[in-house]
Every structure is written in structure tokens, then in C-alpha cells.
Design brief:
The structure is a single chain. By secondary structure, this protein is mainly alpha-helical. It has three domains: 97 residues; 151 residues, no CATH class; 63 residues. It is built from 14 helices and five strands. The strands form two sheets. The protein has a three-stranded antiparallel sheet with strand order 1-2-3. It has a two-stranded antiparallel sheet with strand order 4-5. Helix 7 runs antiparallel to helix 9.
């Protein structure tokens, strides 16, 4: 774990002066970056507002961001802090080092690529899904990968077998009705999924027993299985699980996080998270469109991917894909994971 947080600001009086003018929603993010800066500020014996570009680079490197939008946001926080210091006549000169850098290209060098955050179809399907002995686990991983998500995993947790429908002219796919429990009420949509996912869901729905630790026995274990609660929902908790299910109701969101965390630990994939699984599925769909269109990925293609995964869509239906494109959904990653041999 990257332990670079300091509990106190360097030059706390000036930091407090700066933060008091920030709105509450941004104060937390600004404080996080300024607390991390304390490590280098203490080392150099000067405030962040007096850093030159090389010293700012040191800070951006230790932030260990895995997404371009995250490191650019941190850069904006640093830039704004220095700008404020210049206005307050605190900086030794009136030059803001970050004003002269090109945004995207400059910040790419600070991305932390030491941990894998995207996974190819083979890695998800063959190395993870196929290795799980519980179909309940298979259903969670492949479901997220194909776009079943929702607020607090509600599309996945409210899923029932009766929501699936055959597609007459397409035996390799099924339509499934999804329920997303949003803050504005339930939102329904229909998603086309693979027959592979349908069959996994069908078997998961019939499972009565969940094997702990993927069926492995460890010394001292009383038993290696739990009985699943009996409900109409496909994804179900164990009867004695901490996630309590009362009556015929969906399981709690914590169930999904807990199962993914166990699988990630089992296969030594620390970055195997629900979001990264979904993002990997988005990249796979984008790659299919890219190669179908003679290695082109246009606005319509991005919109198709975002609609499939219900990501980046505003309340009025507007679609925004710029941040996702910068972070991971781009041709560079398509060719990295699915380049033609």
C-alpha cells in the first residue's frame, strides 16, 4: 500500500487560509492533495506554492494515479493553489509553472501502470470466470463485464430469470430486463447479453450451496460451504452471511464487493474490482467496433458502448465520453489488449 499521507499540513496557516475559501464539496479533494504534498514540502523545506516544475513533478509521481483524469485533477488543484499564492503575494515570483504545460501529454507520464486495472476477455473469462466453482461468482464477474451494474449493483442484485428473453433470429444472445434503483426511482432498460452469461445465470439461479474459498479446505475450517437463502433473485447471500436478506428481497450491495474481493485475493489480482471489470468489458466492446469499422472509433461507437454499459449518460440523455476516453476507453488500449497478430 502506498503510505504517503501526512496527518498535518506543511505551513498549516496558509493551507487553512486557502481551504476556507473553497466550497465544501471540493475541500476534501484539495485537502488530500495538500496533505500528500507535505512529504516533499518537509523534505525541501518550502511550501508547495514555491515549487518549480521539477518539484511539482515529484509530487505528481508520488500520487500514483491510475487514471489520467485523476492526475489532471490533482494538477489543477496544485495549479489553483499556486495561482492563489501569487495573488496573495506569497510566491517568490509571479510565474505558475503549470500554466506552461500541455495538459494531457504532460500528465500521462505520472500514471501508475504498476498495477493492472484493465483485463482482456481471456483474462476475465478463462482465468477468472472459468476457474470459479460457484456459479454465483461466475454470474457476478461476467454480469458486470457485460454491462449489468446499476446504482449499488441494483441491476445485478434485482435480476431474476424471468427477465431473460430469447431473441428469435439470434441464438447466441438474449435480451434481459434490468432494474436500476436510482435516487430518482427505479429505471428500467433492456440489455443484450451473451448466451454464455444466460446459461451461467440459469445455473447460478438453481444453486443451493455456496462453497467457501472456491471449494478449498483449510486447516481449522468447520465446514467449507454455506446454504444460500431462497429467493426469486439470482444473486443470493448465504443464510448465515453478514449481509442479511429477509424474505423475498434482493441481497445487500456489500455481497458483491465481498465476493469480488475474495476472488481477487484468490487469484492475486488486487485491481480486480467491479469498476475495473466493467471498464474491461467496455474496452472489449469498443475493440469489436474498432475492428469492424476498419480501425476507426467514432462518436457513434463511443455512444453505443456507453449506452450498453449505462455510463456517462446525463439525466437528459446527453452522453459524455471525453473523460472515459482519456482514462482507458481509447485506441491505444484497444491495440494493447486486442491488437491483431
Amino acid at each position: 500500500m502506498n503510505k504517503i499521507y501526512y496527518e498535518e499540513f506543511y505551513n498549516p496557516n496558509q493551507k487553512s487560509r486557502y481551504l476556507k475559501d473553497q466550497i465544501e464539496s471540493t475541500k476534501k479533494a484539495y485537502s488530500r492533495v495538500l496533505l500528500r504534498a507535505a512529504k516533499i514540502e518537509n523534505k525541501l523545506g518550502k511550501d508547495l506554492y514555491d515549487f518549480n516544475l521539477d518539484e511539482i513533478k515529484q509530487l505528481l509521481f508520488i500520487l500514483k494515479a491510475t487514471k489520467l483524469s485523476t492526475v489532471m485533477h490533482s494538477g489543477n488543484i496544485i495549479q489553483n493553489y499556486i495561482r492563489w499564492a501569487i495573488e496573495q503575494d506569497l510566491r517568490t515570483d509571479n510565474i505558475n509553472p503549470l500554466d506552461a504545460v500541455a495538459s494531457g501529454e504532460f500528465y500521462k507520464q505520472f500514471l501508475d501502470t504498476s498495477e493492472q486495472t484493465l483485463f482482456s476477455y481471456t483474462e476475465i473469462k478463462k482465468d477468472v470466470v472459468d476457474e470459479c466453482i460457484n456459479y454465483q461468482d461466475k454470474a457476478v464477474i461476467l454480469g458486470l463485464y457485460e454491462g449489468i451494474y446499476g446504482r449499488q449493483y441494483s441491476e445485478l442484485l434485482t435480476l431474476k430469470m424471468k427477465f431473460f428473453e430469447e431473441i428469435n433470429d439470434d441464438p447466441d444472445h438474449y435480451n434481459v430486463r434490468l432494474i436500476n434503483e436510482t435516487v430518482d426511482g427505479n429505471k428500467e432498460r433492456t440489455l443484450k447479453v451473451t448466451s454464455d452469461l444466460y446459461n451461467i445465470m440459469r445455473i447460478a439461479n438453481d444453486e443451493d450451496i455456496y462453497f467457501k474459498n472456491n471449494g478449498l479446505d483449510f486447516e481449522g475450517m468447520r465446514n467449507n460451504k454455506n446454504y444460500l437463502v431462497k429467493t426469486d433473485y439470482i444473486i443470493r447471500a448465504a443464510e448465515n452471511a453478514r449481509t442479511k436478506s429477509s424474505g423475498n428481497t434482493p441481497s445487500a450491495p456489500a455481497l458483491i464487493n465481498r465476493r469480488i474481493a475474495r476472488i481477487a485475493e484468490m487469484y492475486q489480482l488486487p485491481m480486480l474490482t467491479a469498476t475495473n471489470i466493467r471498464n474491461s468489458g467496455m474496452l472489449k466492446l469498443a475493440s469489436e467496433l474498432y475492428y469492424e469499422n476498419d480501425k476507426k472509433l467514432g462518436k457513434e461507437d463511443y455512444e453505443q458502448v456507453l449506452r450498453q454499459y449505462n455510463v456517462g449518460i446525463g439525466k437528459n440523455g446527453e452522453i459524455s465520453y471525453g473523460r472515459l476516453k482519456a482514462d482507458f476507453l481509447n485506441i491505444e488500449n484497444i491495440e494493447k489488449f486486442y491488437g491483431e497478430e
